[in-house]
Design brief:
Chains A, B: InterPro entries: CYTH-like_dom_sf, CYTH_domain, NeuTTM/CthTTM-like. The structure is a homodimer. Chain A is mostly beta strands. Chain A has 2 helices and 9 strands; from the N terminus they run E-E-E-E-E-H-E-E-E-E-H. Chain A is globular and about 40 Å long. The first copy, chain A, starts with a strand and ends in a 6-residue tail after the last helix. Chains A and B meet through strand 4, strand 5 and helix 1 of A and strand 4, strand 5 and helix 1 of B.
């Protein structure tokens, strides 16, 4: 069990590109209700099952378990709500933090967001120049909500 | 991944009691929609996260992963739909099969069902004398449905 404290921002420009290689993420949701989400995620030869609680402010409780990738792929394809979420993730270390930039594909193409995980909700952070508007409080940007209302339909 | 082929029956009388010790099961659901269920189950010092697909006839696809019991207990208490399911389970081997008798507690007290897992949907089975009406096709008896509509409210 972990407490996840995250802030999320839109990304502007391309100043972040070329700094780190991309990882391809493919994920589906077995539950997307607001009380709890259940996510199956694949990245290369690894996969995880992740349960997250309701968001309270920018804090969530999270449980994550590694699972066999072939089982994850079966669940994403056959059990998860459709459409699935596909994205490239770029993990950029800066000033002691790691910025995770998600460049979405498929039904969410065009959406690029950056998340940063904090130790405490009040931690001050230095914003890179490619960081735009904060969207931490906007539920439209939850990955679980990008299934039922993908960016292309906004 | 496993294919689960199960038949379920009501239990009549007490002829099955005293044959094997009871195990206490405590379980909660993170998803109970008909397309898929996500269950967290605790039994003693063991716990599992289980995903099951839609039932097709008496067959379901099932994925089960052991998880730390303290995390399971947290999820059952704080994340799962309420009320949770509590029951005693008795596993009785008979004629090459294992009958799992579930004696429900709490909001489902009074309900006792027996399940038997088969290799093939058409397998013939010898019914013990304490087996009553078959309820394999009755969704009211799905454990996931006993959360929203417990036996005491039928």
């Amino acid at each position: 069990m972990a407490k996840e404290i995250e802030r999320k921002f839109l990304v502007r420009g391309n100043g972040w590109r070329g700094m780190v290689p991309a990882k391809h993420y493919c994920q589906g949701y077995l539950s997307t209700i607001k009380e709890r989400t259940v996510r199956v995620r694949c990245c290369g030869n690894e996969a995880w099952l992740t349960i997250k609680s309701t968001t309270q402010g920018i804090t969530r409780t999270e449980f994550e378990y590694p699972i066999p990738p072939d089982e994850a792929r079966y669940m994403i394809q056959h059990l998860a709500e459709q459409p699935i979420i596909e994205k490239y993730r770029y993990c950029i270390p800066l000033n002691g933090l790691v910025w995770e930039i998600d460049e979405f594909l498929g039904a969410n193409q065009g959406l690029i967001v950056a998340e940063v995980e904090l130790n405490h909700a009040q931690d001050e952070i230095i914003l890179p120049e490619w960081i735009g508007e904060e969207v931490s409080d906007d539920p439209r940007y939850y990955n679980s909500n990008l299934v039922s209302k993908p960016f292309s339909q906004w």
